[in-house]
Amino acid sequence: MNKRYRLRNNADFEKVYKYGRSLANRYLVLKYKRADFSLLRFGFSVSKKYGKAVSRNRIRRQLKDILQKRILLVKSGYDIVFLVRQESRNATYADLVQAVENLLKRAKVTEDV
Q: Residues near 37 by Cβ (< 8 Å), separated by ≥ 6?
């Protein structure tokens, strides 16, 4: 995923946590808020309770790949953070795809196609 689409700064994450809205399903929690500018940015948060660095980075890479393929369907002007739940440890890639699509659709941040 291109760096311009990533939330990197702790203050940006805190703004989304504090002022954003939240949706959840079995595998993920989606927190989102309108951005102060028209760029779309994603952030990922995986707790150390999830597992060692290898497994945390693996789930993060999978989510980045899923979103990279769907980035044109998401409206610009949002900061979006995905929080990974421990249940996703047992999820397949297809389960994660379905979970991401479900959350984005429920948040109404996707373009009408």
A: 77
